[in-house]
Design goal:
CATH topology of chain A: Ribosomal Protein S5, domain 2
Order of helices and strands of chain A: HEEEEHEEHEEEEEEHEEHEH
Number of helices of chain C: 4
Keywords (chain B): Exosome, Nucleus, RNA-binding, rRNA processing
Number of domains of chain C: 1
Oligomer: heterotrimer
Number of strands of chain C: 9
Largest sheet of chain A: 7 strands, mixed
Strand content of chain A: 25-35%
CATH class of chain C: Alpha Beta
Radius of gyration of chain C: 18 Å
Radius of gyration of chain A: 21 Å
Main location (chain B): nucleus
Shape of chain C: globular
CATH superfamily of chain C: GHMP Kinase, N-terminal domain
Low-confidence stretches of chain A: 281-310
GO molecular function, one term (chain B): RNA binding
Helix content of chain C: 25-40%
CATH class of chain A: Alpha Beta
Structural class of chain C: alpha+beta
Largest interface: B-C, 49 and 46 residues
Distance between the termini of chain C: 61 Å
Family (chain B): Belongs to the RRP4 family.
Shape of chain A: elongated
Number of strands of chain A: 15
Number of domains of chain A: 1
Chains: A alpha+beta (310), B alpha+beta (325), C alpha+beta (241)
CATH architecture of chain A: 2-Layer Sandwich
Protein name (chain B): Ribosomal RNA-processing protein 4
Helix content of chain A: 10-25%
Largest sheet of chain C: 5 strands, mixed
Chain lengths: 310, 325, 241
């Protein structure tokens, strides 16, 4: 997204960030209010839509039956991809949004998919296995950016976590073909009450810290992002483990600053995860839309703790 | 059942939604002096007295002898002129309007300016005040140094000079109050919410904040420039010989913005955003009103963009309208 | 396969001449000049309009009328089986062209010379009748943007299965092998703007199906008018004096 700002506006924005009063009154470490709607795509196994200020993204999870990946017969599959719709900006028309889509997809894959051995994935891949070596679930997580006002990565990670929590897998009954040479014969239960839920407690949430001048902020708007010198996106899960890290931008960062940013990201992701849990996303799949709104400004702990800045 | 305030990206708890719809209902009732037949959709027939004759204005078309609307909006009748004004359209320029625009291109002897209209406006080199206010012929050096005056992405305040048939519009900054904008913040709202008043430059001295309400929906909120702290704002549109000093910041001075001032600017900016989101008219009275309300309710600037504040603003407006009506 | 049960009910419980439930919302993307979502049953489409604005590439600028551009995209999760679609998808290109031509006929382009209008249509869920849904959403978005139009464009699809003309096919009925006819019309001017059909049917059947689709489109037009009126009233009365 091309955001043109005059030299005077840039000075004002940087000044605001330094003084801890951003354009909309937020402090450096405050998220915008956001809302989550689940089950917005009834045809999908799980879905969620999140509106974070002017950023609007949808994540959907579709489960298909598939063959386990080679070399890992007792694992299922997980695939993530992101599309930027031209509705978000005219620049995304045609192939315009491709670069950004790839960038976001890769960053999310890094955080959610784990290593080549399948270890460290957001979802326990072994839980997706149905018949070892023959049949497993393949989860396709798709993100769609409908409107953008900065901080797409965080919004997408929250939406994907919500969509996975919302996801219900139909019960698979093996009714034959259990010998090693045969293909398994199965039946899918259509009864929603027999759907299994995914264990999503270890799915990480990504927090992006954007450095503008000497200070760094969370949840940057598109205007603030255009001023960034560097940005660090950290994916943290419930255990406090860092699941993925991306540093963007040309300016180098001191190691101490980097470690600082990681610890700030950890604290924020804890707040976000609590907010998600509080929203009660353990609702049954494909139920009517349940709009839930909550205000992260309630979590004042972060204001008091502030953050060490250079 | 319409979703209240769909365009904004927060949603409300069920009880907040309830309060909001009730407040909006009360606002509508209190406002309701627009006759039902004045609302038209695209393609609707407009009732006209064909015998007495009529003049066809904007937003209408004549089909088979019938007058149809081409946009959704309200029918306006001024003497015999019948037109339909759409609401959420791009800025429709009129001569003499004060606008805030962003330079998109520096072309030979002119700048192209984005003013949220269907075409970019043009600002000719001959239509700007040279630094120092000197009146002289533009030389080749001036042409080469255009970027010294305004460069790409600069924000300026200007006045609409002329409109041409093909829709192109020309601006001028021939008064010291127009020029490059600094030390502040731009907020964008829908143009139809900005009332055309005699004054578009407002100095809110009590807060130390200057407000420029561009007719094109771009609102500039900044610190009061130092040069004009004692001057009065000129009342009429400037002509090219005017030397009245005003709120211009074309000198490029940087005012020191204290934290307090920044908080105030932010509060005003959020007040404008909230009014825009609620669909209320934006003028200095309503902005100051919202500002004071936020202070009296003890709301921090960052909480002004929350759902709760929006609901309270609508409720307050409903009360005020029913008192007036 | 029996698409119509002996009692005269279709697979989803509708009668042959019944439209699916219509839902629409105007103003969903704040940054855009006009936007709307339109739902016909399970088919859900969002249309966004940017413009009229300065033409981005000078070579395409037209001195006497506006340049109208349109892009149709389907989300990977929009169909029953998830499929990752490339941008050069032929169906998407065809639909982009069709929607552009339909809307261009409605817009009074000569009132907006040297400007550009971008219409972006994004399908969130596809369950038959996507073409019609896109056109309806685009109409709402254009009206929201205050772009002058000759008339609104309302669209609906109809087909012929089990020897019965049926209105507003869903995906299953669409894949049933019968004809699929989409019509878009200007309800006030009573003119057809778009007519597309696949498969082959005798002429008298064609007439029946075409009339049915037109009736459906008129019903959709009524819904669109109501939504627009509601939106206009809300905005005007909120604004007050």
């Amino acid at each position: 997204m091309v955001v043109g700002l005059s030299a005077a506006e840039k000075v004002y924005i940087a000044g605001g960030i330094a003084a801890d009063i951003r354009g909309d009154g937020r402090g450096r470490h405050q998220f915008r209010e956001f809302n989550i709607d689940t089950s917005v795509i009834p045809q999908a196994n799980g879905s969620a839509r999140i509106c974070l200020g002017g950023t609007d993204v949808i994540a959907s999870v579709k489960a298909e039956l598939s063959v386990p990946p080679p070399g890992r017969p007792n694992h299922g599959k997980l695939e993530i991809s992101v599309e930027c719709s031209p509705t978000a900006a005219p620049e995304f028309e045609g192939r315009g949004g491709e670069e950004l889509s790839m960038d976001l997809s890769r960053a999310l894959q890094r955080s959610f998919l784990g290593g080549t051995s399948g270890a460290g994935a957001a979802i326990d891949l072994a839980a997706l296995s149905i018949v070892e070596g023959k049949l497993c679930w393949a989860l396709y997580i798709d993100g769609l950016v409908l409107s953008s006002d900065g901080n797409l990565l965080d919004a997408l990670s929250i939406a994907m976590k919500a969509a996975l929590s919302n996801c219900g897998l139909p019960k698979v009954e093996i009714i034959g073909g259990t010998s090693p040479e045969e293909e398994p014969d199965y039946e899918l239960s259509g009864n929603p009450e027999e759907f299994t839920r995914l264990e999503t407690s270890l799915v990480p949430v990504i927090v992006t810290l954007t450095k503008v001048g000497k200070h760094y902020i969370v949840d940057a708007t598109a205007e603030e992002e255009s001023q960034m010198t560097a940005a660090v996106s950290v994916a943290v899960n419930k255990k406090g483990s860092v699941c993925g890290l991306t540093k963007r931008g040309g300016t180098g960062l001191d190691t101490s600053v980097l470690l600082d940013m990681i610890s700030v990201a950890k604290r924020h992701s804890a707040v976000l995860r609590r907010a998600l849990a509080f929203a009660g996303l353990f609702s049954s799949p494909n139920v009517e839309k349940r709009p839930v709104s909550f205000c992260l400004l309630l979590f004042r702990r972060l204001d008091a703790n502030g953050c060490r800045t250079k | 059942m319409g979703e209240p305030m769909r365009r904004t990206h927060f949603r409300l708890s069920p009880s907040q939604k309830e309060r909001l719809s009730q407040a909006q209902e009360r606002c509508r009732e209190a406002a309701g002096s627009v006759h039902a037949s004045a609302f038209v959709n695209v393609g609707d027939t407009i009732l006209v007295d064909y015998e007495n004759g009529f003049l066809r204005g904007h937003g209408t078309q004549l089909v088979d002898g019938q007058l149809l609307a081409t946009v959704c909006g309200v029918v306006e009748r001024v003497n015999k002129l019948v037109s339909v004004r759409p609401l959420r359209a791009r800025y429709n320029p009129e001569t003499g309007d004060v606008v805030v625009g962003r330079i998109t291109e520096v072309a030979p002897k002119r700048w192209k300016v984005d003013v949220n209209s269907r075409q970019d406006a043009q600002l000719m080199l001959s239509a700007v005040n040279l630094p120092g206010g000197i009146q002289r012929r533009r030389t080749a050096t001036d042409e080469l140094n255009m970027r010294d005056l305004f460069t790409e992405n600069d924000l300026i305040s200007a006045e609409v000079q002329t409109l041409h048939q093909d829709g192109s519009l020309h601006l001028h900054t021939r008064s010291l109050k127009y020029g490059k904008l600094e030390n502040g913040h731009l907020v964008k709202v829908a143009p139809y919410l900005i009332k055309r008043l005699k004054q578009h430059f407002h100095q809110l001295k009590q807060y130390g904040v200057q407000l420029i309400l561009g007719c094109n929906g771009y609102v500039w909120i900044s610190a009061v420039p130092p040069s004009s702290s004692e001057m009065e704002i000129d009342q009429k549109p400037a002509d090219s010989e005017s030397r009245q000093p005003g709120a211009g910041t074309s000198e490029g001075q940087n005012v020191e913005i204290t934290r307090d001032l920044r908080v105030r600017i932010c509060r005003i900016a959020n007040a404008v955003r909230v009014l825009g989101a609620c669909g209320f008219m934006i003028h200095p009275d309503s902005i100051v009103d919202t500002y004071e309300a936020s202070l009296s309710w003890g709301i921090e600037p960052r909480q002004m963009i929350s759902g709760e504040f929006h609901v309270r603003v609508v409720e307050r407006e409903a009360e005020q309208r029913s008192k007036k009506g | 396969m029996d698409f119509i049960s002996p009692e005269g009910l279709r697979l989803d419980g509708r009668r042959p001449l019944e439209l699916r439930q219509l839902q629409a919302e105007i103003g969903v993307v704040e940054k855009a000049d006009g936007s709307a979502t339109f739902e016909m049953g399970n088919t859900k489409v969002i249309a966004v309009v940017y413009g009229p604005r300065e033409v981005q590439s000078r070579s395409q600028q037209q001195h006497d009328q506006a340049l109208v551009r349109c892009e149709y995209s389907m989300a990977s999760f929009s169909t029953g089986d998830r499929r990752r679609r490339g941008k050069g998808d032929r169906r998407a290109t065809e639909l982009s062209l069709v929607i552009r031509q339909t809307m261009e006929a409605a817009i009074l382009t000569n009132l907006l010379p040297r400007s550009q209008i971008d219409i972006f249509v994004q399908v969130l869920q596809a369950d038959g009748g996507t073409r019609a849904c896109c056109i309806n959403a685009a109409t709402l978005a254009l009206a929201d943007a205050g772009i002058p139009m000759r008339d609104i464009v309302a669209s609906c699809a109809a087909g012929y299965l089990n020897s019965t003309p049926i209105l507003d096919l869903n995906y299953l009925e669409d894949s049933g092998g019968g004809p699929d006819l989409t019509v878009a019309l200007f309800p006030k001017l009573d003119k057809v703007s778009l007519l597309q059909m696949d498969s082959k049917i005798p002429l008298d059947v064609f007439e029946k199906v075409m009339n049915l689709a037109s009736e459906g489109a008129k019903a959709v037009a009524q819904f669109i008018r109501e939504k627009l009126m509601e939106n206009t009233k809300q905005l005007v009365l909120a604004k007050g004096r």
